Amino acid sequence: MLRDLVKNPKLRARVLERAEEFRLNNRAGEEVWFRELILCILTANSSFISAYKALNYLLDDILFLEEKQIAKRLKESGYRFYNLKAKYIAEIKKYYGYIKLKIKPIADYSQEEARDFLYNNINGLGLKESSHFLRNVGYFDLAIIDRHILKFLNEIGTTSLKIKKPKDYYLAESLLKSISSNLNIQVGLLDLYIFFKQTNTIVK
After folding, report:
1. What is the mean pLDDT of residues 15-34?
2. In a designed cystine with 54, which of 7, 76, 77, 189 is the match (CB 3.0 to 4.6 A)?
3. DSSP3 helix / strand / coil % (the chain, rounded to 5)
4. Three-state DSSP class for 32?
5. CA-CA distance, 165 to 7, in Å (whole number)?
6. 146 is known as an active-site residue
7. pLDDT digit string (tens) for 92-101?
8. Whole-structure pTM value
């Protein structure tokens, strides 16, 4: 089933178009990198649609808003975890102007090291969100393991793994890398096919 999706010319064209958008983000300036970082913080424990809607309530004014004002905007957007995410967003505002400058050289050398840096230094980013951010700014060698991916792995009988510890994430990632290698597609793009299989849409 997944192999058929990967071979589908219309879907493949959509995935490649999305990949090109991510590559354009890689060449874009700090504003885009900051936007993608906020989006990935908002996506954690929430749907992409909810996170994207919340992001649009913030973007124009985000650098000028205090933590309580950010929380208010998030709440107005219908976002659930508005206080916690406002705290995380307020924290990373101080890095604005340095995000791309710091992350890109590391990611160009080692995507794994860049993910570790994000995971260990940015509150609100787990391994999944760190991988998601790097994919969205043009790096495709890391797996984004969300509930859709875990459901897929369970459906094909590969594993009944639940992500409770980093080692669980790395194990699932190794399985996905094996699948992506067999399908001749980068693992960072494989999740778009799986997401489409599970939801019939590409929005990530």
Report:
1. 93
2. 77
3. 75, 0, 25
4. helix
5. 34
6. yes
7. 998 999 999 9
8. 0.91
